[in-house]
User: Fold this.
Amino acid sequence: MLESFILLLLFQLLGFVLAQVLPMPLPGPVLGLLLMFLLLLARPRLAATVAPAGDVLLKYLGLLFVPVSAGVMLYFDLLRAEWLPILVALFVSTLLGMVATALTLDRLLKRIEARRQPETETGHE
Assistant:
């Protein structure tokens, strides 16, 4: 288990260092997660090494939101003053995300269906 936490922390550190060195608009932990994702794609067996830490973190995921929720209360006056633009932005971004997901799924399903068509329909036998 310690090995899996060390691996997660190393990738977070690597992402942080890259975010400081490279002029990228991504936070270090996001870069670290992307690097870990690429590594896991290249070496799927490594997932078993990371799984114990991931299981523990997922088990207590709800607790990780408590500091964020408390931090939001610092900006309660701003939220109260700007509730309508925030609500509209949340609604529109959610709607756009759902539409983009639906269109992507539709295109992928059409592509899969086109591959399943018999070759005789395309003129090849």
Notes: Residues 79 and 85 are 10 Å apart (CA to CA). The longest helix spans residues 83-116. The chain has a mean pLDDT of 89. DSSP finds seven helices and no strands in the chain.
